[in-house]
Amino acid sequence: MDRITLAHGNGGRLMHELIDRLCLEFSNSILDEMADAAELKLGKNRIAFTTDSYVVKPLFFPGGDIGRLAVFGTVNDISMRGARPLYISLAFIIEEGLELSILDRITRSIAEASRRARVRVVTGDIKVVEKGSADKIFINTSGIGVIEDLRRKIGAKAKEGDLILINGSIAEHGMAVLNAREKLGFASGIKSDCRNLNFETGRCVAISDTISIMRDPTRGGLAGTLNEIARSSNLGIEIYEKDIPIKPGVKKICDILGFDPLYVANEGKFLCFVSKKDAAKVKKAIGKNARVIGETVTAHKKEVHLKTEIGSSRILLPLESDQLPRIC
Questions:
Q1: Would you say 164 and 295 are in contact if contact means Cβ atoms under 8 Å apart?
Q2: How many CB atoms lie within 10 A of CB 300?
Q3: 309 and 176 in one domain?
Q4: Which listed residue, 3, 41, 48, 124, has the most CB atoms within 10 A of its CB?
């Protein structure tokens, strides 16, 4: 394979191989952590810094839009390091011919999302390209947050014996975007879970100093993210099918279309790896929808195993082919 395909952006094996190839050119100790956000030291202060680009299609979908997604996606990546998001940048790449009414709608959504997450847009840029050179509008954001408790560090690796918590049901974002993009007409009421997570993660960090890693399972879904963590931590992961929350409507659409919900993207969920002694209070801090879905083990290192409802076990491999392109 000597050309880029859509599968290189799906959160699976090909994307990680591409990232590894690119990062060889500028490897360093901070980048090599491969976390959602980099932790940087500025004097006595610790900050989290991240950047992301958004190319979702369609621009508007049930439960969200590209503007809301850009703000919350950046806020959430900062939050995964246990930081409090403060500032974001905003850059538009706009295709010639985009209606100003669409741009106005997107910017209003960005403003509303920023207020909700309590962050400020403080710098930005606009570029316009010829018609046919982009797909209406692409957005790039960067974000900065402060790590206020200097004694605590949310890293990029899990620890042996961690329990794995999730804050709610999976696969809603990917299915909502697909239904809208392809005009499938499923009258299921499925909406994207696109929302900010900084207040939930803040509560977790405030009550526990044994959280080893937090991660939001976006591209590649739950299974893809767990594979990343298993690989980087040199640990095995076991999750329990019966404990993974999936809404009936989402599961039904996945079954009809042949999608595995474990690999479908989310935009308002996060995983928290925490010690067994703190798991109950962290679960309470997350809220009523939180579930313990698995744990880390020393067996089958770098592999994720799913314990099925009938008592068997299967390996959840990293995503190979492209399930849903352009979902964020």
A1: yes
A2: 15
A3: yes
A4: 48
Q: How many CB atoms lie within 10 A of CB 185?
A: 7
Q: What is the CATH number of the domain that holds 290?
A: 3.90.650.10
Task: Specify the residue for token string 């009414």.
Answer: 101
- Please give the Cα distance from 211 to 278 (Å, whole number): 8
Q: In degrees, to the nearest 5, what angle opens at C-alpha 167 toward C-alphas 145 and 312?
A: 130
> What tens digit of pLDDT does each residue of 122-164 get?
999 999 999 999 999 999 999 999 998 877 788 889 999 999 9
Per-residue pLDDT reduced to its tens digit, 176-188: 999 999 888 776 6
Nearest residue to 174 via CA among 56, 80, 292: 56
Are 89 and 48 within one domain? yes
Which residue has tokens 């939180």? 290
Angle formed by the axes of helices 198-207 and 66-79, to 10°?
A: 10
Full DSSP string of 197-224: -HHHHHHHHHH-S-EEEEE---TTHHHH
Burial of 134 from C-beta contacts in 10 A (0-12 / 13-18 / 19+): middle
173, 293 Cβ separation under 8 angstroms: no
pLDDT score recorded for residue 321: 66
**List of residues 6+ apart from 112 with CB closer than 8 A:** 68
Residue 271 included in any domain: yes
pTM, 2 dp: 0.94
d(CA 202, CA 207): 9
Question: Residue 64 sits in which domain range?
Answer: 6-146
Residues 134 and 234 in one domain: no
